[in-house]
């Protein structure tokens, strides 16, 4: 259901036809490292990945409405995202 590797998302590695949610976590415009969680429409935990050194993350998910939660030292932030089948949803999270 999820996938992210250290170093961050590389658009050339997106799987054709996969529903992808990816983005970057920043603080004051600078990348920040930590973890990002993917929660379903009911708020249920689905997956968690570490951010890369550049604050990037990626999940492969089913289509639907999701909450992406950034967990970084001293802060958390949530963003709602609607993922469409086979599409790419970009999420910017400022904490």
General description of the model:
This protein has strands spanning 20-27, 30-31, 35-39, 45-50, 56-60, 64-72, 75-83, 88-94. The termini are far apart. With 95 residues, the chain is mostly beta strands. The chain is globular, with a radius of gyration of 12 Å. Strand 3 (35-39) and strand 4 (45-50) form a beta hairpin. The protein has one domain (19-94): Immunoglobulin-like (Sandwich), CATH 2.60.40.10. 0% of the residues lie in helices and 54% in strands. The strands form two sheets. Strands 1, 2, 5 and 8 form a four-stranded mixed β-sheet that branches.
Which key terms come to mind for this protein?
95 residues; mainly beta; Immunoglobulin-like; four-stranded mixed sheet; globular; disordered N terminus
Order of helices and strands: EEEEEEEE
How many helices? Answer: 0
Kindly state the percentage of residues in helix.
under 10%
CATH evolutionary superfamily: Immunoglobulins
Report the major sheet: 4 strands, mixed
Q: Tell me the CATH architecture.
A: Sandwich
Produce a short descriptive summary.
With 95 residues, the protein is mainly β. Helices cover 0% and strands 54% of the residues. It contains no helices and eight strands.
